[in-house]
Design a protein that fits this description.
The structure holds 2 protein chains of 2 kinds. Chain A is α/β, with parallel strands linked by helices. In chain A, strands 6-9-10-3-11-12 form a 6-stranded mixed β-sheet, with helices on both faces. Chain A has a 4-stranded antiparallel β-sheet with strand order 2-1-4-5, covered by helices on one side. Chain A contains 10 helices and 12 strands. Chain B is α/β, with parallel strands linked by helices. Chain B has one domain. Classes of the chains: A alpha/beta, B alpha/beta. Chain A binds chain B through residues 50-54, 73-75, 77-79, 83-84, 86, 89-90, 92-95, 99-100, 103-104, 107-108, 111, 143, 160, 164, and chain B through 336-339, 341-350, 352-353, 356-357, 360-361, 363-364. The complex binds adenosine-5'-triphosphate (ATP) and magnesium ion.
Chain lengths: 253, 391
């Protein structure tokens, strides 16, 4: 059975139609890359899947692991195992990463019928996940994302993903702006989390990431729908030739 | 109601006082002031949003209610007095009708004194449980003297459930001696009653004075804090945190008077408003011509959880010296929706996310409270009030 099935999804924001009949099926164990020009709707897709209420779903269905995703509140989606690594993680002054993660992990565990971790076990668990993404110990004690560099924010997203152990991770440009070391750390984090029952949707502009996180499929999102799908060779072709040739083919058709 | 009638209500209240034999000097001065004045109405700039006068217009009977209890703390003398010399020497009664009313009507003053050099670590806790019935008025008075080189932490906790057309007026005078330290925390949670509190502070050189006021429940809470920095090198912090719901009205008026050079004042007032509540913040920082090298910082931040809540914020910085570092700022807005979504996307429900953000918002004020016990009590109370506000 597929993990995520998106059928004919349409969405708008502030009276503007962004997604226009989007289809995608993701099976457990798969990695899908979504590429596409700026403004094509990649982050909108991610936001709609995560349940951001400023985006209005105007049509279509999304099934997540046998449940109607669009019917769930954002927190239910998270507890069910959907995780979005934000393109622009939010800074939250005064809330420490530790307290935030303690609250989040407790909620997710509760949903899975597990008791909250006692302080000692929680700290050990956190230490293990911090090491996975080589997150500086000090960052974990600071306010969520406040004053973090771009790379630190992205690493913090992957750290949170590791903590929450989702079934589906959606990474929205987690690689953008990273130097090669940070990129390798982020990609390693993802690769270590990969398993046969988990899947990832990796939104990116750069083929470079896909050398580290090897996708099973590459899709091109343009004007609110997938206009082309292929394997990782498609990413190479896009990197070389840009998107114009796809746009041209579309207008010819 | 006419002014003449309001004035006669005041005289009636004052002439009904039983305690005319004590504190004669300051009382006659205050009564002289009251004879020509009246309880300020909403026409008065300082009372624009806060109508206490209506309580007087409906008639108030003076009752005796010196029900402040306290723990015994080594190194602190606490006693009721009818002749303590320092009482009244901040001269507040010559400026403001409610203060003058307090001076003419309080029966005895609760005096708290820490002798020269005494370092008191345990917190002194004043518990004032207000039990006034409709139409009742009472005035209480506190004097805190922290002598040179001494230090004290004191909490004044107002609670009880007075009826909703009663009024308690408390005036606390504070003297912080040379190189002395005082942390003075207020918690105000009085159900439906009305409370008018004034704190008049004088700080001598090299002293350190911190006051935090947390307002949680009351129909009307009016809190005045006036701090005079009389000696050089004083550091003072004044903070407030308020949470309003329903039709509550909380009003904070503060004044920091920089009279001499090289002093520092830091002020953070923050609040969360829900329902149809109204908040008022008026913070004046006055830097006199001689007060060079003053550092004055003030901020007031408010979060509105409902469209029907109103915040009136007015920071005022008046600077007559030319070599100072001062800043102030005021913000009033909604909760950061992006932050709420971010937290929900990690599994916190809407209330959990909101509570985490608002607790963090309160944190900047709460961290100035040194007592861990008080802080954690307040955190619980804040959580409870947030639950009530979520509707
Ligand atoms: N909250 C919003 N309010 C108004 N317009 C929005 C909002 N979010 C997205 N849009 C618009 O929707 C379109 C798609 O935006 P989206 O962020 O999904 O693109 P993207 O493919 O992620 O682009 P990028 O590669 O630059 O991240 C853009 O035209 C954008 O301006
Ligand atoms: Mg985007």
């Amino acid at each position: 059975m597929s993990l995520l099935t998106i059928k004919n999804l349409s969405a708008r924001v502030e009276e503007k139609d962004i997604l226009k009949g989007f289809n995608l099926t993701v099976n457990p164990g798969e990695v899908h890359a979504i590429m596409g020009p700026n403004g094509s709707g990649k982050s909108t897709l991610a936001s709609v899947l995560a349940g951001n209420e400023s985006y209005e779903v105007t049509g279509g269905e999304v099934d997540f692991d046998g449940k109607d995703l669009l019917d769930m509140a954002p927190e239910e989606r998270a507890r069910e195992g959907l995780f979005l690594a934000f393109q622009y993680p939010v800074e939250i002054p005064g809330v420490s990463n530790v307290n935030f993660m303690k609250a989040a992990v407790t909620e997710v565990r509760k949903h899975r019928g597990l008791e909250p971790l006692v302080a000692k076990d929680f700290l050990a668990y956190m230490k293990e996940k911090k090491e996975l993404v080589e997150l500086d110990g000090k960052l974990a004690g600071r306010s969520v994302n406040e004053g973090f560099s771009g790379g630190e924010k992205k690493r913090n997203e992957i750290f949170q993903m590791a903590m929450l152990d989702p079934k589906l991770g959606i990474l929205d440009e987690t690689d953008s702006g990273l130097d090669i070391d940070a990129l390798r750390i982020v990609a390693n984090g993802v690769n270590k989390l990969k398993s046969k029952d988990k899947a990832f949707i990796v939104i990116t502009h750069y083929q470079r990431l896909l050398d580290y996180i090897v996708p099973d499929f590459v899709h091109v999102l343009y004007d609110g729908k997938i206009v082309r799908s292929g394997t990782k060779e498609l990413a190479l072709e896009l990197e070389e030739k840009g998107y114009d040739w796809i746009k041209e083919e579309l207008t010819e058709a | 109601m006419s002014e003449a009638m309001t004035t006669s209500i005041l005289s009636e209240l004052v002439s009904g006082a039983k305690s005319a034999n004590s504190f004669k000097g300051i009382r006659s001065e205050a009564e002289g002031f009251l004879a020509d004045s009246r309880i300020p109405s909403k026409k008065h700039e300082d009372w624009k949003y806060t109508n206490i006068k209506r309580l007087f217009d409906n008639g108030l009977n003076l009752v005796s209610a010196n029900d402040i209890t306290f723990n015994s703390v080594d190194g602190v003398e606490v006693y009721w007095s009818t002749n303590e010399e320092l009482v009244g020497s901040t001269a507040i009664h010559s400026k403001e009708a409610h203060a003058a009313l307090n001076t003419s009507l309080f029966e005895k003053a609760l005096v708290i004194r820490v002798k020269k050099g005494a370092q008191v670590n345990e917190e002194l806790i004043l518990q004032q449980v207000i039990k006034l019935n409709d139409g009742e008025f009472s005035a209480t008075r506190v004097l805190i003297v922290v002598e040179d080189n001494a230090s004290l932490k004191c909490q004044h906790h107002y609670s009880g459930s007075p009826q909703n057309s009663s009024l308690l007026n408390n005036l606390t005078e504070v003297f912080v001696g040379q190189n002395a330290r005082l942390e003075l925390n207020y918690v105000q949670e009085i159900g439906e009653g009305n409370l008018m509190t004034t704190t008049e502070v004088e700080c001598q050189r090299d002293s350190n004075f911190t006051t935090n006021c947390v307002q949680l429940y009351g129909s009307l809470l009016r809190n005045n804090v006036n701090i005079r920095l009389k000696g050089e090198n004083v550091e003072t912090h004044l903070n407030g945190f308020y949470m309003l719901n329903g039709k509550e009205l909380f009003d904070n008026h503060t004044l920091v008077d920089h009279l001499v050079p090289h002093c520092e004042s830091n002020e953070i007032y923050r609040g969360i408003l829900a329902g149809k509540s109204t908040g008022v913040f008026n913070g004046r920082v006055f830097v006199h011509r001689d007060a060079q090298k003053t550092n004055g910082y003030q901020s007031n931040n408010n979060i509105l959880l409902s469209d029907d809540a109103t915040m009136n914020s007015k920071p005022e910085l008046e600077i007559y010296a030319d070599d100072v570092r001062c800043s102030h700022g005021s913000t009033t807005g909604q909760l950061d929706e992006d932050a709420v979504f971010y937290l929900r996307a990690r599994g916190l429900d809407e209330f959990g996310a909101t509570a985490l953000l608002l607790t963090a918002f309160a944190g900047d004020v709460l961290k100035a409270i040194s007592s861990e016990i008080l802080r954690s009590e307040l955190e619980d109370k804040i959580q409870n009030k947030l639950k009530e506000m979520r509707a």
